[in-house]
Amino acid sequence: MIWEIPKRSGQSQFFHKKAVFFLSLLIALYSYSLLWAADCPQPRFTENAPPEIYNMVNPLPPTMENILAGKALYEDKAKPMACKLCHGMKGDGRGGMSMGVHPQPRNFTCEKTINDVPDGQLFWVISIGSPDTGMPAYEELKDEEIWKLILYIRKLAQFKITEFQQGILSNDILGMR
């Protein structure tokens, strides 16, 4: 054996096997987490929306009310399913349903990725989905709901992940005192 934990007197062989197993498991999980991490920036090859949609600018102001409505859609209310299931609570592209999905769901916390995507392109992808990805069409959402969702998605790239891990969405981190 290349790697072996030396035995001490009085310790059982079972303990040593257990220690080696758990150490191996930790190494494997760490390695897998590195592979699963959402890239920043993420390369994307989604077709551009038609020019009249691509060039649209979000008509809604980024008020606390609109952003919180977008957050509610992202976390719970959007149909066919909540955005967080694939994009994760923090918007990092690591939701529970993202494992094994290729390409990985968009990482909204990456400013380099999300700032290069115009509002109209986000509107189009949310509305009709993205072919050859796991992104479904959100045909049941009204236009105003999509715009609110986009306001929230844009905020995900603007503040610290630790604040989301705590579930905090306050006037302070939204920059709206």
Tally of individual domains: 1
- The count of β-strands is 0
State the share of residues found in helices, binned by percent.
40-55%
CATH architectural arrangement: Orthogonal Bundle
Strand content: under 5%
User: What is the H/E order?
Assistant: HHHHHHHHH
Q: So what's the CATH class? A: Mainly Alpha
- Annotated CATH homologous superfamily: Cytochrome c-like domain
User: Which structural category fits the helices and strands?
Assistant: mainly alpha
| Mean pLDDT rating | 80
Top keywords for this entry?
177 residues; mainly alpha; Cytochrome Bc1 Complex, Chain D, domain 2; elongated
What does this 3D model show about the protein?
With about 180 residues, the protein is mostly helical. The protein has one domain: Cytochrome Bc1 Complex, Chain D, domain 2 (Orthogonal Bundle). The protein has helices at about 15-35, 50-55, 65-75, 85, 110-115, 120-130, 145-155, 160-165, 170-175. The radius of gyration is 21 Å and the shape is elongated.
